[in-house]
Predict the 3D structure of the following.
Amino acid sequence: MRLILVRHAKAFDRDAAAWPLDAKRPLTAEGRKAFIRLAKRMKRVVREVDLVESSGFVRAWQTAQLLHLEAKWPMPTRFELLEVEDEPQVASGEDQIERLVRAVVALREMGTVVWVGHEPTLSQLISRLVVGDANAGIVAMRKGAVVSLALQFSSVDAIPMARVDWMLTPTVAARLT
């Protein structure tokens, strides 16, 4: 299985007057433009995607829609577990990262899954899948960055082991021809 993690593109800064609910904060024009360029490159790099799930926060949802429009990936569906809160909730004794790991296990039969979300969740998930420690800090995702993980499962209930295959940022995508 391949898991592609995408951090939302550049959004406006927090502004309680403009967006009392941070979840409503949209992408900037610059962020959209840079991510469109990256999404067009993604169309060449990853041709087949089985599922695109996204945080429902406006900035992540807009990023996922750009992947649909520009990379021709499937239309996104909302995955609330990718949404971040200022004060994370704990459900059934598991934190958000462990619930995401369980979601990965549930999707193990799929070829390529794309999750569009936020920091620090995505970087913590990468660290958890690659080295077993969500706080290892093996990667920090910039806005609009895409990371591809190759996952291997040793048994039906096993926690996957992941390898980082590649990472692409809007800055690098802009330099590619």
User: Anything to note?
Assistant: Residues 29-45 form the longest helix (17 residues). The two ends are 28 Å apart (CA to CA). The longest strand covers residues 161-168.
